[in-house]
Amino acid sequence: MDDRVKAIAERISEKVVGYRRDFHRYAEVGWTEFRTASLVARRLLELGYDVEAGRGVIREADRMGVPSHDVLEACWRRAREQGGDVEFLDLMRGGFTGVVASCGDAQGKTVGMRFDMDALEVTEADGAEHPPAREGFASVNHGVMHACGHDVHTAIGLGVAEILREVGDSLRGRVKLIFQPAEEGVRGARSMVGAGVLDDVDFLLGLHVYSRWKTGQIAWGMNGGFATSKFDAELRGSPAHAGSAPHEGNNALLAAATAVLNLHAIPRHRAGASRINVGRLTAGTGRNVVSPTAHLVVETRGATTTVNDFMYEQAVRVLESAAAMHGCTLEIREMGAAQSADSDPELAERVSAVGMRLGGFTPRDSAPTGGSEDFTYMMTRVQSRGGLATHMGVGARTGGAGHHTSDFDIDEEVISLAMALLASTTLDLLDSS
Amino acid sequence: MDDRVKAIAERISEKVVGYRRDFHRYAEVGWTEFRTASLVARRLLELGYDVEAGRGVIREADRMGVPSHDVLEACWRRAREQGGDVEFLDLMRGGFTGVVASCGDAQGKTVGMRFDMDALEVTEADGAEHPPAREGFASVNHGVMHACGHDVHTAIGLGVAEILREVGDSLRGRVKLIFQPAEEGVRGARSMVGAGVLDDVDFLLGLHVYSRWKTGQIAWGMNGGFATSKFDAELRGSPAHAGSAPHEGNNALLAAATAVLNLHAIPRHRAGASRINVGRLTAGTGRNVVSPTAHLVVETRGATTTVNDFMYEQAVRVLESAAAMHGCTLEIREMGAAQSADSDPELAERVSAVGMRLGGFTPRDSAPTGGSEDFTYMMTRVQSRGGLATHMGVGARTGGAGHHTSDFDIDEEVISLAMALLASTTLDLLDSS
Amino acid sequence: MDDRVKAIAERISEKVVGYRRDFHRYAEVGWTEFRTASLVARRLLELGYDVEAGRGVIREADRMGVPSHDVLEACWRRAREQGGDVEFLDLMRGGFTGVVASCGDAQGKTVGMRFDMDALEVTEADGAEHPPAREGFASVNHGVMHACGHDVHTAIGLGVAEILREVGDSLRGRVKLIFQPAEEGVRGARSMVGAGVLDDVDFLLGLHVYSRWKTGQIAWGMNGGFATSKFDAELRGSPAHAGSAPHEGNNALLAAATAVLNLHAIPRHRAGASRINVGRLTAGTGRNVVSPTAHLVVETRGATTTVNDFMYEQAVRVLESAAAMHGCTLEIREMGAAQSADSDPELAERVSAVGMRLGGFTPRDSAPTGGSEDFTYMMTRVQSRGGLATHMGVGARTGGAGHHTSDFDIDEEVISLAMALLASTTLDLLDSS
Amino acid sequence: MDDRVKAIAERISEKVVGYRRDFHRYAEVGWTEFRTASLVARRLLELGYDVEAGRGVIREADRMGVPSHDVLEACWRRAREQGGDVEFLDLMRGGFTGVVASCGDAQGKTVGMRFDMDALEVTEADGAEHPPAREGFASVNHGVMHACGHDVHTAIGLGVAEILREVGDSLRGRVKLIFQPAEEGVRGARSMVGAGVLDDVDFLLGLHVYSRWKTGQIAWGMNGGFATSKFDAELRGSPAHAGSAPHEGNNALLAAATAVLNLHAIPRHRAGASRINVGRLTAGTGRNVVSPTAHLVVETRGATTTVNDFMYEQAVRVLESAAAMHGCTLEIREMGAAQSADSDPELAERVSAVGMRLGGFTPRDSAPTGGSEDFTYMMTRVQSRGGLATHMGVGARTGGAGHHTSDFDIDEEVISLAMALLASTTLDLLDSS
Predict the structure, then answer these.
(1) Which position among C28, C52, C62, C116 bears the catalytic label?
(2) SS3 A178
(3) Min CA distance, C313 vs chain D (Å)?
(4) I need a surface site. Which of B109, B428, C385, D221 has the fewest CB within 10 A?
(5) What angle do CA A23, A24, A29 make, to 5 degrees?
(6) C328: CB partners within 8 A, 6+ apart
C-alpha cells in the first residue's frame, strides 16, 4: 500500500504544487483566509468529502485577535474579487475561515490532521533571486506574504485528501482533515477546539515545514514549546491640565508604569521557565496633559500550561491593582494563546516506522524552538480524551532565509514527501487499530 | 484690673515656677501624663473648679498613637510611685490623661484656654551648663524630657487658674481650662474635641513658648501650619523559600516598594502646598525568604485641610492597591492628625490690645514654622460654631538650643508674663461681650 | 502729545486691522513664520527703521523645539508662494524668523517692545458664526490657526512703528521693536536673548490680548507665571526575543517605567509650587520583542526659576540613572522653556498713568493664568542689567471662545487702544528719563 | 584492606562519637569556630600530620560574611575559656579558623577531603525527647546549635585521619584533610580556595549527612545546586525635614524602593533557572524625616554559575543606578557565594564501587535540594585543573526533624560508615592511580 500511496503522491504532486503557488500568490492573514479557505472547502467537496465550514467549526467566543469589522469586510470583498468560492464565502463572512472535511467509516477509529492556512504581515521580496518572484507567484496582496510555509501545509492537506479518496476502499476507519485559520499569533486553534472539532479524534497528526532544515530531515514528535498568553491591556483614566489642575487627573501612564515594573517582577516559578514581556506601551496625549489612556501589548509564557497560567493570573492581578491605584478602568483583550503539550512517543514511533519504510526521511532531534504553537490546544484536547497526538517538523530547505522574513522560501519537494507520509500513516493507524 | 492681675501673677510666680520644675522633673510622654495630669486635676479641685478628668473628656475612639497596654501600665505605676494623685490616677488609667476645669457664670460667654502637658522621647542633657541639671530639676525619667516647653504651658495654666479664682467676683461669664495630653505627634486634641469639650466655648486661646525668640516677643495670632495625617501601614503577605518556591510567596516588600514610589508620586494639588513622606520602612525576615511583612511609617501634609485630605485619601488608595497587587492584607493605624486653621484676626487684636496695655511684649510676625499643631482641631471646632480662636507664640529665650534637643531650655520669666496676659484677656473678653 | 498719538492710531487703524487679517489668513506655526516675518521686516524697512532679521537676531544654539529640516523647507516654499518678501526670506531660511527694528537717538535710553508672531496647530472653524470665516480671512493653511492672538500682536507692532516714525522728531531716545518667533511652546525668546537683542534695552514692554476679558480691561503688570522646561527624552536599549533570549535585551520600556515613577516622585520644594508631567510615552515594537526604544514627552514647572531648575535637574538625574540601570542610552532634547519673572511695579505704574490719561482702559487684577510665557526670558535679561520690564494683559472680547480653540476670536477694537498705549508710553518714558 | 579499615573504624568509633558530642556541646558559628578548629588542629598534630592553620589556609580578602571585630573577640575569649588549644587559638584570632592537614608521599597523587565545622544561630531544644539534651551534650552556647550535622562531619574527619595514619604504610600518595569554616551562608570555601589549598588536589571528596534519609542511604555524586551570591547593600543619602525642606534630602528609601522593583524585574535567562530575593529592607529614621539610609539583604541564584553571574551583575547595576538616581552612595558587601558544580560521574562510580564492597549503603537518586553549597568552589577549582571531584549525601535518620530546626538530630551510626568509606576510597584511589 505504501507504494501505491507514493505513486499517487508523485502523480499529483505537480497539481498540488500548483495549489500551493495559488495560495502563495493570494496570501491572506489570520481570520481573513476567505479565498484560501473557500477554495479548500470547494475542492474537498469536489473530492467527495463531507465538508463543514464557517461558524459550525469556529466557536465565536473562542476566537482571539480578530481584526476589526472593517478589515474583515475589506478582505472578504478582495477574496470575492480574487476568485474565492462564492458559496463558501458567505459561510465564512465575519472571520469564520475554518474548514473540516471527513470521510470513511464512522464505526472505526478517527485520524485527524491539522493544516494551518494563514499568512503574515510581511512584504514579499520582489527580486529575481527570490523564487516566488522569479516564477511569478509572489504575493499580489501587498504587505501580506506566506513567509512561514502555511501555503505548503494547506496544499499538502488537499493532496492528502486526494490520495485518501483514491485508496478510500482500504480505509478501515475515518479521516478528518482540519484546515485552521490564524495560527500566527496563536489565535485560531482554540476556536476549533471550542467548536468540538477534535472531540472524536483518536489519532492527531500535525506537521510544520522548516526552511533551515535539510529537505527530508524530520522530527517525528516535537516537544517543549512554551505555553503562552497574548493580550492587550487598555487603561483609561481622565485627563487634567498638568499645570493648573494636576490633582484632577487619573493618570493612566502612572498606572501603566507601575504595572510594567510589577509585571516584570512577577516571581519565578519552581515548576519551570517563565517569561513576561510588555512589548509595546503607548500612553498619553499632550505634554501638558495628565495622561488619560495607556495601551499595553503583553505576553506571558511558561514551560508548562501551569506555569503560564500562573504568569497570566499574576499579570491580570497586577494590571487590575495598578488601574485601581490610579483610579483607572482596565480592559484586557485576549489576543492569542497556546498551551504546552508533548507529542506522544508511541504515536511518534508509529509515524517514524511508516516514514522509514517510505524512505526520503532523515530523523533529527527536535530541539525546542523557543516559540509557541496553538496546535497544542488540539493535542491537549485529544490527549485528555485518551487519544494520541504528535507534531512533526520536516525540513524543506532552499537557501538560508529564515521564517518570517521577506525572502523566505520552501523546497517544494517536501510536498510529495509529506503527502505520502501522512496518507500512509493514516492507513497504517486505521489498519492496526 | 490689669494691675491687680499683674500683681497676683508676680506674687504667685515663684510657686508656679515650682510647679513647672516639678513637671519637668517627672516628664511623661503623650498618653502617659498620669502624674502630671492627676496633680493638675487635684490642684484645680483645690482651687474650687469643677473638674472633669479621664474618659469624660477624652473620647476613646478619637485617640491616636496610643502606646501599648504594657507601656501604659508601666507608666501608670511609675506615676503612682512618683507621687501622682491616687484618686485621679484611677480615672486616667489606660491613657485618659485629659483634665477640664471650669468656673464662673454659665449664663455668660465662655473663654476656653488649652494647655498641653506631654514631654518627648529625648534624653536630657546632664552637664552643669544645662540649667535644669544645674538647678536639680532635670528629668528623672530617663529618655523622657520636656524639650518643647509643655511643662511651662501646664504651669501657666495652673497659674491662670489661681489668678482667675482670686479675681473671680469680677468674672462676667465662664472660664474653661483645658489640659490636653499627647500634643507631640498631634495625637491628643481630636479626642477632646470628640468628647465635646469645645462645644460651649466662645473664645479659645492657645499659647506656645519659643526658645529662640527673645523673651516677650509675641505673635498674637499664628497661621499657616500644615494640616497633617500621621499613620502606620502594615502589609502582610506570606513567606516562601526564595530558592525553591518563590511563586508561593506573597511579597509584602514588593507591595511596599510599589507603594513607596506611588505615594511619593501622588500629584501636586492646585490649592496649595502638599507633602508626603515615608519616614521608615521595615520589611522581611531572612535573606532567602520572600518577605512576608512590611511596616511603613507615613505622614501627609497639606497647606489646607482639603489638600491634606486629598493626600491622605490618595495614600490610602495607593496602599490598598499595592497590597491587592501582591496578595497582601493592609492595616492602617492613625497615629496623629492636625488640621489647618487660621487665628481670627479680630480675636488676635483683642489679645494684642490687652498685652500692650500690660506691657512686656514686643509684637512680631508669625512666619509659619513648617510644623503642625493639633490645637487646630480645637480652633476649627470653635470657629465652626461661630466662636473665635487664636494661637499665640511667645518668646522665652535662654540660649540657643532648639526645640526637641537635649539642652533645650526656657526663660522662666515668660511664666509671669503669660499668666497675666491670659488672665487679663479672659476678663477683658467676658467684660465686653 | 497723547492726543496726537491717539489721532494717528485712529487714522491708521483700518490699515493695521488689514495687516492683522492678512497675518491671520496666512497663519504660520513657530519657526516657520517666514511670510509673516519677512513682510514685517519689509514694512519696517519701508518705514525707515534699521532692520535686522535672521541669524543676527536668533542665536541658533538657543532655539528650542525647531521642526525638522523638511518641514522648515516646505513651509519656506509655501511662504514664497504666498507672497513673502523674497529678500528677507533668504535671511530667514532654516527657521531664523526673528526681526528687530530700531530708530531714534542711541545716546538716549532705549524702550524695547516685544511682539510674538506664531500661530498654533489648530484647525480653524469654518462656519458663518466664526467672524474670520464670515469675513473671509480664516486661515488658508489647513491645521494652522492664529488661535491665541499673536496676529493681533504683530499688527499692533507695525502700527506702533508707524506712529513712532510719524512723531519721531519728539523721540528723546531710542526705540527697539522686537518681533519674536515661536512663543507657543515657549521656544523662541531664549534665542533672541542669546543673540544679545535685549542687552541695550532700558524699558521693556510686552502685551498679550485676552479673549475672555472685556475689551479695554487691563492688567498693567502681570506676575506669577510658572517657570517651565519642556523636553523630550529618548531612551535606546537593544531588542531581543522575549521568549528565547530575554536576557540579551536592554529594555528601554523598563527604563522608562522606572523613570516615570521617579519623575513624579521628585520631592516637593519648600520655595513654592512645582509640577512635573510625562504627557506621552511611546515604547516598544512587537509583542514578543524586548522594547528597544522609549520616547517620553515631559515638562516641569516651578513657581520660581529656582524651583523649576530644581525640578529639571532632578528629572535629568532620574532619566540618566534609569537609562544606566537598563543599559540604555539617553538623549534629551530641549523643546521649550520659560522663566518666572515679575513685572516691575514702578514701570507698571508708569504705563498705568499713561493709559488712564489716554482713556479706554479699566484696570483689573492679574490673577496668574497657570500658564507660562517666554517673554520672561527677555524680562529677566533686562532686569538683570538694571532695566525695568512689564508684561501687560489687555481684554479684547468678542464672545466666549477660549484661547487655543478653533473658534477663538479677538475684538479688533483692541488694536487701536494698544497702539496708542504703547506709543504714548514710549514717548513718556523717553521724555522723562 | 577494606576489612582492616572497617575494623579500625569500628574500634575507634566510640572515641569519634565522643569528639562529635564535644563539638556539639561547644557549638560555634561561622568564622568563630576557634575552639573546634584549634582542637582539630591539635589532634591532627598529635596524629603526626603536617598541620597548617590560620592565615596560611584562609585568604583574608576572600572571606565573606565575617562577624564584627567585637563578636570575633568575644567568641575567641569564650573558646579559650572552653578549653580551646592555646597555641592554635593565637593563629586563628580574628576569624582564621581553617585547618589543613596532610601526610603521605608528595610524589603520588593527592586525595583531598573537605569537612565543614560551623554551627547555626539556632537555639537547641532542651526537652528529654531531644537526644543531645537527654544525653547531656546539648549546646552550652546559647543560641548556637549544630543543627545541620557539621559536628558529625568534623568528627568523621578526625576519624578518617586516625584510620589513614594507622594504615599509612599502604598509602601510595598523599592525603589532604581540609577543615573549613563558615559553610553556612556559603561564606568560607572561597577563602580556602583563594589560599591555594586545593591547587594540588587530584581527587576531591565531600560528604553531607541528611537527617531525613534512612541511615546508609547514599547519593554518590550530587548535582544541581544553585550557584548563588549573597550580599548586603547599604544606601546612604541625606536626611531633611519632610515638612519644611523635603527638597534638601537624598531619599535612600526611594532609591531602595526603585531598586527592589527593578531587582525583581531582572529578566529571565535562557540558559536556566534564576532567582532573586530582597529578603529584608530596613530604611529610615523618623516619620517626618526624609529617609537617609536603607539596608537591603539580597541574594541571587542561578542554575549555572553563568546565570548567577548575570543576575549578580544586573543586580549591582540596578543598585548603583538607583543610588545615583537619588543622590545616594552605595556600598555592597559580599556575604556569601556558591558556584554550580556537578560531581564527576567517573569519581562517583569509584566511590560507589568501594561503598558497595564495604556494605551498609543503599544508593539513592540525588534530587537537587534547591539549596546551595560552597564546596562547589573547591570542586570547580579541582576540576578546572584536571582533577575529579564528587559530593556525597549520606542518610543518618533518627526521627523526623529537619535541618536547621532546634530538635535536629543525627544517627551516630553514620560516623563509622562514613569514616570507613572515605578511608577505603582514599586508599583505592591512590592504589590505582
Answers:
(1) C116
(2) strand
(3) 11
(4) C385
(5) 85
(6) C235, C236, C237, C250, C251, C252, C255, C322
Q: Which residues pair with B111 in a beta bridge?
A: B175, B203
Residues of chain B with pLDDT under 50: none
Grid cell, residue C282, equals: 511611546
Contact A308/A273 with Cβ under 8 angstroms? no
Q: d(Cα B294, Cα B283) in Å, to the nearest integer? A: 4
Q: How many CA atoms lie within 13 A of C349 on its CB side?
A: 3
Record the cell numbers describing residue D80, joined without a space. 579559650
pLDDT of residue C370: 62
Cβ atoms of A99 and A53 closer than 8 Å? yes
Type of residue found at C375: F
Tell me the C-alpha to C-alpha distance, in Å, between residue C160 and each of B63, C50, C296: 69, 15, 42
Interface residues of A toward C, Cβ cutoff 8 Å, are 226, 228, 230, 241-244, 246, 251, 253-254, 256-258, 260-261, 264, 275, 277-291, 294, 297-299, 301, 335, 369-372
Residues in chain D: 433
Tell me, yes or no, if A162 is annotated catalytic.
Answer: no
Q: Is D190 left (phi over 0), alpha (psi -120 to 50) or beta?
A: alpha
Supply the Cα-derived Rg of chain C in whole angstroms.
Answer: 23
The strands making up B274-284's β-sheet, listed across from edge to edge, are B329-338, B227-236, B293-302, B274-284, D274-284, D293-302, D227-236, D329-338
Beta-bridged to residue A391, according to DSSP, are A206
Among B359, B371, B1, B368, residue whose Cα is nearest residue B163: B1
What's the one-letter identity of residue C270? R
- Which one is catalytic: A85, A184, A407, A428? A184
Distance of CA A271 to the CA centre of its chain: 27
Residue C172 host element (H or E): none
Instruction: Determine the Cα angle at C399 with ends C393 and C402, to 5°.
Output: 60
Cα–Cα distances in Å, from D115 out to D101, D176, D379? 12, 11, 13
3-state secondary structure B166-224: HCHHHCCCEEEEEEECCCCCCCCHHHHHHCCCCCCCCEEEEEEEECCCCCCEEECCCCC
- Note the pLDDT tens digit of each residue in D318-357: 999 999 999 999 999 999 999 999 999 999 999 999 999 9
Are β-strands B362-363 and C174-180 bridged in parallel, bridged antiparallel, or unpaired?
A: unpaired
CA proximity to A155, closest of A22, A286, A61, A63: A22
- Inter-chain Cβ pairs, chain A and chain C, closer than 8 A: 137
Q: Which residue of A has its CA nearest to B320?
A: A325
Is the four-CA dihedral D42, D44, D47, D50 of positive or negative sign? negative
pTM: predicted TM-score of the whole model, two decimal places: 0.91
Q: Do C257 and A256 touch (CB under 8 A)?
A: yes
3-state SS, residue C84: coil
Please count the residues of chain A.
433
In eight-state DSSP terms, residue C399 is: S
Categorise residue C48: left if φ over 0, alpha if ψ from -120 to 50, beta otherwise. left
Question: Taking the C-alpha atoms of C366, C369, C371 and C377 in order, what is their torsion angle to the nearest 10 degrees?
Answer: 0
Output DSSP code: residue D431.
Answer: H
Cell of C425: 508710553
Give dist(CA A79, CA A85) in Å, integer.
9
Dihedral class, residue A196 (left if φ above 0, else alpha if ψ from -120 to 50, else beta): left
Choose, from D52, D116, D202, D409, the residue flagged as catalytic: D116
Locate the chain B residue with the closest alpha carbon to A260: B258
Angle between the N-to-C axes of helices B2-25 and B34-46, in degrees from 0 to 180, rounded to the nearest 10:
150
Q: Is B46 a catalytic residue?
A: no
* φ, ψ (nearest 5 deg) of residue C285: -130, -90
- Provide the pLDDT for residue B223: 87
> What letter does residue C124 receive in the DSSP assignment?
P
Helix spans in C211-292 (H): 252-264
* DSSP type of residue A338: E
